Each structure stands twice: as C-alpha cells, then as structure tokens.
Amino acid sequence: MILDQLTTLGHPQRLAIFRLLMRRYPDALAAGEIAAALDLRASTLSAYLSRLMRAGLITQDRHATSLHYRIDMAAVQGAFDYLSHDCCNDRPNICPPPPLTASNALRVLFLCTGNAARSIIAEAILRSKAGNRFTVFSAGTKPLGQIAPAARTLLMQNGHDIAALGSKSLATLQHANTMPFDFIFTVCDRAANEDAPPWPGHPVRAHWGLPDPLVEKAGTAAQTKAIEHVYSALQQRIHAFVALPFDTLPRTSLQAALDDIAHILPPTRKPTQ
User: Confidence class of residue 35 from pLDDT cuts 50, 70 and 90?
Assistant: First the structure.
C-alpha cells in the first residue's frame, strides 16, 4: 500500500489535489470546487480523484447530486508514521512540534483573500479580548488595500478601535514580522485553497470559512445583514477560542477543538410577526 500511495503522490497534479484537501481538512470539498481551485477539467480531475481513492488517501461522499472528497486522515497518518519511524526512531523530542505555551503572548493571524472585511473583523474582535494574552494580525493574499466601508461602520458601531487596522498583503506582514505565528486561521475558502510554503514555527492552523459579505451590493440591507452575520459568527468563535486552556490542552486536542469551533454559527433570527 505504501508504494502505491507514494507512486500516486509522485504525479504533480494528484499531489496538488492531495495538498489542497490537506489544507482544507477536515472539510470535504465538492469536485467542482477542487476543479476551480486547481484549474482542472472535470474528466481529468475525475481520473486523478479515482487514483487517490484507490490508493486509500481520500474518501468520497455524495451530498444530493454532488460528490465531495476528504482526506482519509487515518490512512495518511499511517503512511506518515511508516515513513518517519526510522528517521525519528520514535523519539518524541525530534518529530512532534514544540508544545504551545501561553507564558508569552500567543501570536494569531487571520488570513483571507482581500483583507477588507472578514479577517479585519476577526482581528478587531480578538484585539478587544486580547489583553496581554494575544498579539493579533490579519492579512490578505490579494489585499484590496482598504477596509470595506460596511466593515468599518460595523466595527465602529460595536465600539472597536480601528486606528491600528488596515488592509495589507501577507508578504508585507511576513517581511515586517519575522517571529512565527502560533495560530493561523483562514476565514475564506479562496485563501484556504491557495498553495503556500510551509509556515515556520509549526503554527496550529484551522479554517473558519465564512461567506464573503462584500459580494452583496454596497450600501444595501443585504450587505449590512451579511456583515452582521460574519461579525456575530466570528465573535462567538473567538469567544470559544480565548476560553481554551492553551497551557494544558494537548496539541491534538487543541486542533480538534479549533476544528469544532469552525462550525459555530449564530442562531437564525425568526422573523417578527
């Protein structure tokens, strides 16, 4: 099995699909989203996905009329364990990343594409709760260069200090901040799907994707409602995040907790009679 898995991943486009699904784990992605993210034709993608499934690296589920694919993490972990056994010789001081400690401020990055609404809102919310526990940043892979007016208005209405906030590129942030991050949260699917070099320092990563409120027409009630939904969801997720016992929670349990937090959404408001 291990030889078949290595041979399967030896193909550059099959490896790209595998890496995309790893970045989005534990999410399952529709075939159409994978094809769009990697610019693959449907017939080509189907052949690659079939090969990855035969190698036991991914699983397939049907949702209505759409097929969704997810990393088979147990199988992948088994392959990694096989490959790393001789290297590490089961020495825990060599292979696992260093444990988190909250004795110093934990560095948190919220990442999206435009860095104009979702990641900016998340940065503002955590800054308001941070105290001395967190140092908070946000950035975009393709930043718009300014905070969306609707996001700026919402943050000011909720009492957030926006003086330190600004839309910036990930490259600019990385150049200005050489210290590694402890946590990286992607808050849009496009940013989560993009390929990126390994992050230094073994940050804990999670995907907290939310719909882009800026697709709604500026100045409309629909955009205001979408922005408020993003704010409420991120506020609840960040409240759950800051309550975690970082000093005592094992890293695997911490990762599971962050993945669970990704599913927290504000309750749906019932229309008034």
Answer: very high
Question: How far is it, in rounded angstroms, from Cα 3 to Cα 158?
Answer: 56
Distances (CA, A) of 149 to 154, 211, 233: 9, 17, 19
Rounded CA separation 183/199 (Å): 10
Query: Is residue 26 reached through a cis peptide bond, with omega within 30 degrees of 0 on the bond before it?
Result: yes
Q: How far is CA 167 from the centre of its chain?
A: 18
Residue among 10, 12, 1, 52 nearest 31 (CA):
52
What number of other Cβ atoms are within 10 A of residue 162's Cβ? 15
pTM > 0.90: yes or no? no
Computed on alpha carbons and rounded to an integer, the radius of gyration of the chain in Å comes to 20
Domains detected in the chain: 2-88 (1.10.10.10), 106-261 (3.40.50.2300)
Chain centroid offset of residue 122 CA: 13
